[in-house]
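B., you asked whether I could sanity-check this one before it goes into the benchmark set. Here's the sequence:
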Amino acid sequence: MPNVLQPSTDTVSSVGRAVSDLGLAGLLGGQLFGRMALHPAVSAISEPRERGEVVNAAWRRYGAVNGAGLAAVTAGWIGARGGELRFRNLDSRERSLARAKDILVGTLVVSGVASAVEGIRFSRAAPDGAVPLEDGDHTAPAASESARKRKQRLNVLGLTTIAAEVGIVGVNAALSQVNFRHSPLRRRLNPFN
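And here's what the prediction gave me:
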């Protein structure tokens, strides 16, 4: 009789994947919303310092979602690599995909942490985050040179983060497809594939 107090490894893996997917959705969705909607929209605010205040306040609030998302994606991948996605359990195609995801998750962690640090520094360049902005992506002429450079770094880090997130979505889809294509006999003989 199964122990009802201890979840099965399938249940734990499924929950871990769902949490990781939700984390990735929050990360990518936030980046796309910021770049495609928030940043252009603040140009409708007439005062450049108020634009900066609004942009920095929004990203500060979303920082908790980004942090939780980054932790979920990272923990989910580390858990998968320590279990079902160990190299000994993978065929050559899966190994290539796992290596690619290792690189993408590493890139996401580095760019995500760097974005958080640089975003905090940028927002502290003026009281209440009121760094003068033309829009969410560009500083206004009244901004300091250091604020301008930080904003440029944030833009590069943001694009790097988006590229890593989109790459992870692609690798996840490929890993799922490879697993789906495995024969039913192979799946029965090796439950890790």
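One thing to flag: The chain has one domain: 15-189. Otherwise nothing jumped out at me.
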